[in-house]
Amino acid sequence: MSLSPSRVPAAPALHPFVPAPVPSATRGRVACTLALRHAGRRDAHIDWELLGAEGLPVLLVAGGISADRHVAAGAAFDAAGWWDAQVGEGKALDPRRVRVLAIDWLGADGTLDAPIDPADQADAIARVLDALGIAALEGFIGASYGAMVGLQFAARHPRRLRRLCAISGTHRAHPYASAWRALQRQAVALGALQCDEADGLALARQLALLSYRTPEEFDARFAPAEVVAGRVRVGAEDYLRHCGAKYVARTSPTAFLRLSESIDLQRLDPAGVRVAVDVVAVAEDRLVPVADARALAAALPDARLHVLHSHYGHDAFLKEDDAISRVLADFLSTCRRTEIAA
Asked: How many domains are contained in the chain?
């Protein structure tokens, strides 16, 4: 179903609101040994960040493979977070009402050079909860790869989760999207063969951006091609080059390759998910077709489907601030009415 503003509560009712300053975020690292699905037992570490007062219900927030533990700027860590639009005072995920937990993905620093399944990420999150003494999550909000991991967590650790919100991510990697990612990984490999892995990674990122967005956005945003100094330049080239360079500056090629592969390893039987799930799809998403989201919602034992529209396509969760805020408010309003799976 489509989500209309009239159906969405103005604010989440998870916790009585008491005006108070937001405590500084805390960070840490959990060292552990994990039995990886495709690579056996490996020593690993998971970095985490937690924002909000002790005693509040805990929400885990997870984004795409480029997202990390720093979700929002705060007093302790004032750099911009990847979801500042949704996390902060007066926003959908208000740390005066909830505690927001996020992690760096297993393998995100490039030190784990092995196949990493989304199920491995779910088990890594469980280890973080153990270390922090968190018995169960009030909610898990996952977008893109984070939605895939959230579904795995719900299937593997149902007693530790009240409700899941899966945005632009489903129970499988669509073969068309996997083919797109395979080409990106080939770009990195070709760069490495020429001793220029950075340029290969930059090109892979540029190819990825084309899959995240839509033709409609590019048509509205960029000018037609023109001849400059004897060669043809298209309107989006400078934008794509900038995005590629920015990505290379903060991403290990090994991390990109392994996490890109991890998306393609997603395989889950929705019937095995015993946690209530809000499935959120974007009709214009070319990586996660709305048909897959509908199939997921139909196969889950307890699910609600929300279909949004956006010319940002797969990146709508990062760009459509108002629509996503309404979805999150609706999700939070239902969390307390949902029982933890037996």
From this structure: 2
